[in-house]
Write a structure and sequence with these properties.
This protein is mainly alpha-helical. About 50% of the residues lie in helices and about 5% in strands. It has a two-stranded antiparallel ribbon with strand order 1-2.
């Protein structure tokens, strides 16, 4: 499938992009090559591929466990200002 320069100009207009004549020719050739490659990929027989092959990796996730790595005192101890176990920050909205 070949993409013409007029189609590239139309896509450029929709995308609000400006291309020189040289760039239009290059994009036309690049898009044509990409579409030809996609057409080749569509010819690949995937009938033997199971749908759940890829998803299986994500089926066996670990359970979430809360494991605090630092105590509240350790974290607050690094803050320039704190009050009753909370960070104190300057007011940014009046």
């Amino acid at each position: 499938m070949e993409i013409t320069e007029n189609e590239i100009k139309h896509l450029a207009t929709l995308s609000r992009l400006n291309f020189s004549e040289e760039e239009l020719g290059k994009f036309s050739a690049d898009f044509t090559a990409i579409l030809n490659y996609v057409n080749e990929l569509q010819k690949v027989d995937t009938s033997q591929v199971k749908d759940n092959t890829i998803i299986r990796e994500f089926d066996e996730l670990r359970e979430d466990e809360v494991k605090p790595s630092l105590s509240n005192d350790d974290v607050i101890g690094n803050a320039p200002k704190n009050y009753n176990g909370y960070f104190v920050a300057p007011t940014v909205v009046e």
